């Protein structure tokens, strides 16, 4: 479940600096107008950036966690951009203001890990880098495997390759676009080491390969950060009802609308960022009924408890859900 530290809510932050970190990867440093302290950052956390073109996007923080008076996020200019990364790369300048919520953390380090295996692909290195800073600071042993197509598309290479905190613990793989020349995740993950946790963030192909190769690891030792939903196979949509217990309102959710859409149309304000089941911002308590979970944020255990639902994408197995709204 996402951690619940103090967060900004659509706060305007000034762009202090913009830096090219690699081909098509740019970092943005953001601060309050008075340079005051910002909410504490945990390793693995991200910001939600509300862009003036109406889009909200999530970007991971890559610095060492702690109290900050500026945040840095790294953004990959995605050729398939639906407007978020393209807008940041092409329109935003130093001195501009961005509306920011967060930090949120759906990818926290486990307090119980004796050691950590970190696997990053491409821009997925951003939350992994903040984790590595934290693990180094705590003296927890870790190995970091960083995969990218080539050196030019890999960010923070000098830091990872040459700096004291990382150089002994980091291996880099550049596969030129051919996964068979990259990191052998099957071999890497074959042995389960007691107390070791695995953290992975990167493109869907890498995360799916890591997920398959770690299927014999204890479920609570394997952690993924997804910013884009993978396609999921779902049952055909059926109509159901939601009863909002605090408001004493019953609504019908037809086959062609999400719970979120129905709630918004009825005038309810629901926090959302991704609207595709990967950020956790719309999670709502379920008081009765059985959700049909379609999100990629809740763990299997959290899904089986059936006491919370991502209203942006999930539906109902029962004819009626009672929500704490
Ligand atoms: S809005 Fe992101 S999980 Fe629902």
Describe this structure in words.
With 325 residues, this protein is of the alpha/beta class. The protein folds into three domains: 97 residues, Elongation Factor Tu (Ef-tu), domain 3; 111 residues, Nucleotide-binding domain of ferredoxin-NADP reductase (FNR) module (Rossmann fold), CATH 3.40.50; 84 residues, Ubiquitin-like (UB roll) (Roll). The strands form five sheets. The protein has a six-stranded antiparallel sheet, covered by helices on one side. Strands 11-10-9-12-13 form a five-stranded parallel sheet, sandwiched between helices. A hairpin with a 5-residue loop joins strand 4 and strand 5. The longest helix is centred in the middle third of the chain and has 14 residues. It is globular and about 60 Å long. The two termini are 19 Å apart. The mean pLDDT is 91. The structure holds FE2/S2 (inorganic) cluster (FES). The site of FE2/S2 (inorganic) cluster has 14 residues, from loops.
